[in-house]
Amino acid sequence: MSQSPPPGAREGSLEAPTRHPIEWKNPDYHDEALLFKELERVFDICHGCRRCFSLCQSFPTLFDAVDATASGEVAAVAKTAYWGVVDNCYLCDLCYMTKCPYVPPHAWNVDFPHLMLRAKSFKHAKGQTRLRDKILSATDRVGSLAGIPVIAEIVNAVNDSALGRSLLAKTLGVHPDAPLPRFESQSFRAREGRRAKPALEAFATEGTRGRVALFATCYGNRNEPAIDADLVRVFEHNGIAVTLAEREKCCGMPKLELGDLEAVEAMKDLNVPVLAALVDAGFDLVAAIPSCVLMFKQELPLLFPKDPLVAKVAEHMFDPFENLMLRHKGGRLRTDFKVALGKIAYHVPCHLRVQNIGLKTRDVLKLVPGTTLEVIERCSGHNGSYAVKQEFHEASVRIGRPVATRVAGSGAVQHSSDCPMAGHQISGILDNRRPPVHPLTLLRQAYGITVT
């Protein structure tokens, strides 16, 4: 039978969701019997509610498994079927932050994404992670290798050819139609290291310090360095000095999505002390990729709740438009825009929505005269490596098609997403009729800043 509320408990909750630390080093975390007991408990609650059926493929997978049983109850579902639910979860957090009425502080204490993380971690600890998934989540290593000049040209040529995509499908299980990132032979960090920096005096506002340290990210460093370059141009145009961390590794989000929490800890141990030292030196921290910002703001503090350096970095990590909007509130954002942007179809990525900072990208771009935005708050279906994998690509397209349909029917001259991979997913669903333009690039264009 579906679970009934305990005596005195109300149905649903109007209180803000709260998150509990992830006790992943507790021996009970990987206890198989306890894991499956909790999976069944939460799945039974989800089955009785079903309001998340349209968010992703995890919930239809669960509900179809329940509906296929004679009793129509979770207890009758084979435990092996649970893994289909787990594997389709890409930890977007939307069910927790926007849909589920039973999240803490509700007595039922449902945290679906972190339960899926626990199950993924269990699989990884059991050695059940595919080699393909280990390779796709090794963004630092893949980027360093694929970024070698001659190799970058070969990788891009392979990714652009039908034969190459066929080989990737056979060897790595990469779907032939999935959007794959290009690799640049000159990284952003290399280019930025050669650039002369302007001397800028820091002017603080409430909530900002007037100078930032940029976490370049694997993607911004190796795949689309122009995004990070545009961030630097926009910030310097607004009198904000930008520096780079002495060194950085992947933020850990790809490994988190794999359940490899030991790898996440190793990356944390490399990144956090460097970033914390920059905070102590008077810098705010920014990153152009929402998933990386979320990793430092939320996931690492929940995984390492007693680490003071993690807490310090989380407190000073900003989405770039969040920082710029605070500067505007403090009277320090330039509004001398020279180029109207027209109508923009703006997609809000999941990992930006769940940061609970509001629509800061929209708010900044709305300051540009002659600019209107069609805001689309729905999942693109890309979600890290999910859309790339053969077994999930079709589901990812189904999830993202409503977004692409909104873009196509918006009459917008350009479409944009803070997540560049989501932008390319939307373009792919639109048969690549129009490439995405990152919001930082749009802002740089609006200021009339030319690329040199």
Arithmetic mean of pLDDT = 93
The residue ranges in which pLDDT falls below 50 over 5 or more consecutive positions are 1-5
Q: Tell the overall outline.
A: globular
The CATH topology name of the domain at 334-446 reads Rossmann fold
Which class best fits the helix and strand makeup?
A: alpha/beta
What's the alpha carbon Rg, rounded to whole Å?
A: 22 Å
- The proportion of residues in beta strands is 5-15%
The strand count comes to 7
CATH class of the domain at 334-446: Alpha Beta
Give the CATH architecture of the domain at 334-446. Answer: 3-Layer(aba) Sandwich
From the N-terminal CA to the C-terminal CA, the straight-line distance is 66 Å
Number of separate helices: 22
Could you describe the 3D structure shown?
The chain is 49% helix and 6% strand. By secondary structure, the protein is an alpha/beta fold. Among the domains are: 27-125, no CATH class; 334-446, 3-Layer(aba) Sandwich (Rossmann fold), CATH 3.40.50. It has a 4-stranded parallel beta sheet with strand order 2-1-3-4, with helices on both faces. It has a 3-stranded parallel beta sheet with strand order 6-5-7. Helix 8 packs across helix 9 and helix 20 packs across helix 21 (420-429). The model is unreliable at 1-5 (pLDDT under 50).
